[in-house]
Amino acid sequence: MQVHVFENAKQVGQAAATLFAAQLLRKPDSVLGLATGSSPIDCYQQLIQWHKAGILDFSKCVSYNLDEYCNLPVEHECSYHAFMNAQLFDHINMKETHVPNGNAEDLQAECARYDAAIQAAGGIDMQLLGIGRNGHIGFNEPSDHFVFGTQIVNLTESTIQANRRFFESEKDVPRQAISLGIGGIMAAKEIVLIAMGEDKAQAIRDTVYGEVTPKVQASILRNHPHVTILVDKAAASLL
Ligand code: F6R
User: Fold this and answer.
1) How far does the centroid of ligand 1 lie from the alpha carbon of residue 166, in Å?
2) Residue 153: its pLDDT value, please?
3) pLDDT, tens digit, for every residue of 85-105?
4) How much of the chain is in helix, strand and coil states, percent to nearest 5?
5) What is the pLDDT of residues 150-173, one digit of tens each?
6) In what order do the strands lie in the sheet with 190-195?
């Protein structure tokens, strides 16, 4: 596990974009694992800028997102489908993009389908991760075990509160999500985790120095051979 500390959040995003750009240049038909939330926005903006400048071509590249809310129409501005379109997909030429279907009639079947699709695509080459204040990755919330496959998750109160800022009122925040499991994340060949801000400092400390425990789901990353953690000074303040 390598940890790099940057002066500010923007630099974290640019450093993450640099790793993804290098991945794409090395392997134009990469399978990328992508995340939503505030953390990846600077990274996506940098990738868009490089694409528009003619430096990055995504035309052979395929992406799979980590998660999606359940029972939120994809057209809803807070759905992760809508987020990805607005923040990245509408501005680049990705060959194929995939986001789990949180509105599937049979959500368990959707979980299995999603895992099978990633496997059929050859597995994820590089996975981008944010981290929750409670150490969640994807929506794998603190628990007494790690879940291997894509799963339906009941969001914790801390996650509902953290996501509240995007919705009109707290009651509008979905209570369930579909998320790649820990096995799916750990199967990625390389993982890039980014975190900004003081409210992530404890989760980053627990991930880097704490025991490997499902109470801090990100701590499992210590068992992965190729993890790069990019943080700003605030998120690194407890290291
Ligand atoms: C999003 C995801 C989540 C977020 C995490 C941090 O696809 O999987 O694990 O990465 O909740 O969210 P932000 O970046 O909004 O602080």
Assistant:
1) 12
2) 95
3) 999 999 999 999 999 999 999
4) 40, 20, 40
5) 999 998 898 888 888 888 888 889
6) 2-6, 227-232, 190-195, 126-129, 31-34, 62-65, 96-98
Which residue's C-alpha comes closest to atom 3 of ligand 1? Answer: 138
Q: Are 129 and 163 in contact (CB under 8 A)?
A: no
In angstroms, the CA 148 to CA 203 distance is 21
d(CA 87, CA 37): 10
pLDDT score of 87 = 98
pTM: 0.97
Q: What is the pLDDT of residue 12?
A: 98
- With a Cβ cut-off of 6 Å, ligand 1 is lined by 35-39, 66-67, 130-132, 136-139
Structure tokens, 161: 């509160």
**Three-state SS for 88?**
coil
| CA 66 / ligand 1 centre spacing (Å) | 10
Q: What is the pLDDT of residue 156?
A: 87
- Which numbered atom of ligand 1 lies nearest the CA of 200? 16
Strands (DSSP E) found in the chain:
2-6, 31-34, 62-65, 67-69, 96-98, 126-129, 151-154, 176-179, 190-195, 227-232
The pLDDT, as a whole number, for residue 145 is 96
Q: Which residues are catalytic?
A: 67, 134, 136, 141
What dihedral do alpha carbons 210, 215, 218, 223 form, nearest 10°? 70
Taking the CA of residue 159 as reference, the ligand 1 atom at the shortest distance is: 11
Ranges under pLDDT 70 in the chain: none
